[in-house]
């Protein structure tokens, strides 16, 4: 009973404090009459929602440890991205003549928020996979590949956003469009690899420790919503864009634009899908007990590193057994 009180009490305090903040923001909105459009009010709601998520993720990092649950670090980063993006969006809408840098800031943050969410999923999968595969070095190399892939996708997306904000000609827009297309396509490819990796863990689920199986179940529950978020990013990346301050050509993908598209699609496919994924991971972090089970795998992995000779990356583990997707990725490095 005491452990549940220890876990739930700080979270209750956080949400109570932020409910008071929410009341203050409502007062500010309706009595000071902030001039916001629908997306502005969505940003206001995200500001309120992600503040307790930020504090909860800090608590979970402290509770589980950085080395054991690296995914919570990226939830913390995602919360910062969403809070800063919401603030800049609200400030831009309140300004009669918002600067290009302000608009550029919240537009880029809107697009790059997917990267820490994907990295968080990879972090949780890293925890699930400890001790599952027979060559920890290949497993670690595979995870490093996935992390580098996610970082590359984010960097390319940022470059596309910066180029678009500073575009002065159609050639500049075309260049930015190329970066946007490459970035969102890489995110889709990364999701496919994450999904296949999580299937590999289900194939080897008997080797996964019981508490980590709960984490794997949570990841499986979150992946459909993460897929919706990735699909929206893909559709948004291919929506028409133009030189800043001009109206882009309209087509069937215009409603998925992250800046001036349909707020209904944005709310459902981007905001709601992302929040459900994040909340699923937070519930997972609260529900999982902090036990010695996580530490018991470490000596096993260390012994494998010492005892397992270096094998051909194409031969697999003992007896030439393949390592699944991790071994395949590592063999290509």
Automatic annotation (TrEMBL):
Query: Which ranges does the record mark as transmembrane?
Result: 7-28, 40-60, 72-92, 112-133, 145-167, 179-203, 215-235, 263-284
Name the lineage.
Eukaryota, Fungi, Dikarya, Basidiomycota, Agaricomycotina
Q: Per the database record, which ranges form the DUF7702 domain?
A: 36-288
Protein name, please? DUF7702 domain-containing protein
**Keyword list, A-Z:** Membrane, Transmembrane, Transmembrane helix
Q: Does the keyword RNA-binding apply?
A: no
Highest taxon in the source lineage: Eukaryota
The family database entries (InterPro entries) matched by this protein are listed as: DUF7702
């Amino acid at each position: 009973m005491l452990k549940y009180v220890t876990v739930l009490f700080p979270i209750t305090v956080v949400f109570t404090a932020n409910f008071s903040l929410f009341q203050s923001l409502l007062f500010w909105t309706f009595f000071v009459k902030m001039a916001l459009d629908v997306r502005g009010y969505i940003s206001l709601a995200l500001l309120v929602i992600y503040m307790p998520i930020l504090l909860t993720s800090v608590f979970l990092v402290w509770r589980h440890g950085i080395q054991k649950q690296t995914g919570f670090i990226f939830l913390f980063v995602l919360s910062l991205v969403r809070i800063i993006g919401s603030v800049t969006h609200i400030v831009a809408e309140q300004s009669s003549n918002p600067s290009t840098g302000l608009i550029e800031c919240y537009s880029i943050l809107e697009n790059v928020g997917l990267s820490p969410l994907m990295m968080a999923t990879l972090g949780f999968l890293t925890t699930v996979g400890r001790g599952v595969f027979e060559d920890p070095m290949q497993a670690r190399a595979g995870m490093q590949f996935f992390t580098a892939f996610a970082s590359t996708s984010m960097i390319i997306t940022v470059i596309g956003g910066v180029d678009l904000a500073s575009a002065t000609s159609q050639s500049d827009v075309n260049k930015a469009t190329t970066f946007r297309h490459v970035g969102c396509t890489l995110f889709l490819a990364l999701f496919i690899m994450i999904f296949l990796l999580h299937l590999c863990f289900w194939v080897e689920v008997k080797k996964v420790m019981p508490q980590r199986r709960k984490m794997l179940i949570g990841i499986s529950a979150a992946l459909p919503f993460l897929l919706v978020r990735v699909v929206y990013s893909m559709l948004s990346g291919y929506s028409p864009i133009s030189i800043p301050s001009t109206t882009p050509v309209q087509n069937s993908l215009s409603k998925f634009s992250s800046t001036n598209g349909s707020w209904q699609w944005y709310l459902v496919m981007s905001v709601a899908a992302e929040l459900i994924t994040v909340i699923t991971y937070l519930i997972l972090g609260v529900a999982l007990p902090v036990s010695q089970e996580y530490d018991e795998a470490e000596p096993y992995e260390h012994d494998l590193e010492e005892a397992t000779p270096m094998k051909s990356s194409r031969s697999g583990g003992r007896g030439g057994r393949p390592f699944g997707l991790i071994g395949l990725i590592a063999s290509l490095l």
